TrEMBL record:
Source species of the chain: Stylophora pistillata
Keyword terms, alphabetized: Cell membrane, G-protein coupled receptor, Membrane, Receptor, Transducer, Transmembrane, Transmembrane helix
GO molecular function: G protein-coupled receptor activity
PANTHER family with a match to the protein in the record: G-PROTEIN COUPLED RECEPTOR
InterPro entries in UniProt: GPCR_Rhodpsn, GPCR_Rhodpsn_7TM
GO CC entries: plasma membrane
Name recorded for this polypeptide: Melanocyte-stimulating hormone receptor
Regions that span the bilayer: 84-112, 164-186, 207-226, 232-252, 289-307, 327-345
Domain G-protein coupled receptors family 1 profile: from-to ranges: 104-343
Membership in a protein family: Belongs to the G-protein coupled receptor 1 family.
Location relative to the cell: Cell membrane
Gene (name only): MC1R
Membrane topology: Multi-pass membrane protein
Length: 403
């Protein structure tokens, strides 16, 4: 046996050296611990010398733990235990909440596009948000669960590719969701601000164009993750803050306009007690309040994750940052599971349409009353009132916005 390094107690041979797998076979007798440190120094020197024979040897060694675009980081023993617990818990929660995210958002999308609800631009944007939430359950949470399972069972290659998938799709779909929430807020504002010009300006075709542009922007922003990762983090945080500010300002302005319209409604009721004007305004207020609830829920879910991204930029990807990232990314995904229940709870038309989709697909015939709810009849639309002097008529765009 050829001895590359001799030691009173340890023997190392060339044939037993595998530098890329870092495998070394050691034959021990009575180990002399005093000279063990010297042996390790010789071992590392020889290891680097052999890898350095080629110009790319050390680069290959440094990159052997790389996962496509990300480097695998070794944490301390305490951090590894915390990461393991986090992996198990987030895996369970994402697996559980993926089911309502998929089923609930499929029902909402079908309910909107299979009935007259697509006549309303706000419902078209709502279906865009539901479709994005559907992708969260179908793609993001599924790949997240696969990634965490691979981490738990130490399947490095599977963990690498599933991590790549859920990060790419996650950032893209999150961008689409935020843009759609901002678009819904602006559409609600224009419904009151434009008055009679609303129907002319906010058309279904323009809304579909805007929804398509949201996906283009989401893909473009996600591509920065591969081009300039430092700039990507800053752009994501800045974009989220800008989206929240625009949405908040839009809803504040809506609140002020609604208060003014409430005073006009009181004036109209003194002239003509027609209930449909108040009903339509209440309907608009309820649908707008529903979207405010959805926005606030998204705000609560997204802001902690943004703070974690700031911590990552400042402190690096430590074990604690990784655990916080997994936890709050799970919270963001859970938001997509809750939205369909909010729609059905707060919006009567959505609830009736979803119930109709369920009945039709389960083979149950709808009753006459429920059929009339699902069918659009222009004759039943409210007629214009003959307003007297002293009060201004409410803008007709208000009726259109709540259909």
């Amino acid at each position: 046996m050829e001895r590359a390094t001799r030691h009173p107690a340890i023997y190392l041979t060339h044939e037993q050296w595998d530098p890329y797998n870092q495998t070394i076979w050691v034959q021990t007798e009575a180990i002399n611990w005093d000279s063990l440190d010297k042996f390790y120094r010789q071992y590392l020197t020889e290891y680097e010398r052999r890898l350095g024979r080629s110009s790319t040897g050390m680069d290959e060694y440094r990159n052997q733990n790389a996962c496509l675009f990300a480097k695998v980081i070794d944490f301390s023993m305490e951090e590894n235990q915390l990461v393991y617990i986090s992996n198990v818990m987030t895996c369970i929660f994402n697996a559980l909440f993926a089911v309502p995210a998929i089923v609930g958002n499929i029902l909402v999308v079908l309910a909107i596009w299979k009935t007259h609800l697509t006549r309303s631009p706000s419902n078209v944007l709502l279906s865009t948000l539901a479709f994005a939430d559907l992708q969260v359950g179908l793609i993001v949470q599924t790949t997240f669960v696969c990634h965490k399972m691979a981490e738990i069972f130490k399947a490095a290659k599977l963990s690498c590719y599933t991590r790549f998938a859920y990060i790419v799709f996650g950032y893209c779909i999150t961008a689409v969701s935020l843009l759609t929430l901002t678009g819904i807020a602006l559409e609600r504002f224009l419904a009151l601000h434009l008055h009679l010009r609303y129907k002319e300006v906010v058309t279904k075709r323009r809304i579909l164009t805007a929804a398509s542009s949201f996906w283009v922007i989401g893909i473009a922003v996600t591509s920065l993750f591969f081009i300039q990762r430092t700039a990507f983090g800053s752009i994501v945080i800045a974009g989220e803050v800008l989206s929240i500010v625009i949405t908040s300002v839009a809803y504040i302005k809506i609140y002020k306009i609604v208060r003014r319209h409430a005073r006009e409604i009181q004036c109209q009721r003194r002239i003509d007690p027609g209930a449909h004007v108040e009903l339509n305004m209440k309907k608009y207020q309820r649908s707008t309040c529903t979207m405010v609830i959805v926005f606030m829920l998204s705000f609560v879910c997204y802001v902690p994750y943004s703070l974690v991204m700031v911590a990552k930029l400042k402190y690096g990807f430590t074990g604690s940052v990784k655990v916080a990232t997994d936890i709050f990314s799970t919270v963001v995904c859970i938001n997509s599971s809750l939205n369909p229940f909010i729609y059905c709870w707060r919006m009567k038309e959505i609830r009736q349409a979803v119930w109709g989709v369920i009945k039709r697909n389960t083979g149950v015939n709808l009753g006459a009353t429920e059929q009339s709810m699902m069918t659009f009849n222009p004759i039943t639309q409210p007629k214009a009132l003959d307003y007297g002097s002293g009060c201004k008529p409410l803008p007709q765009a208000t009726h259109e916005s709540v259909k």
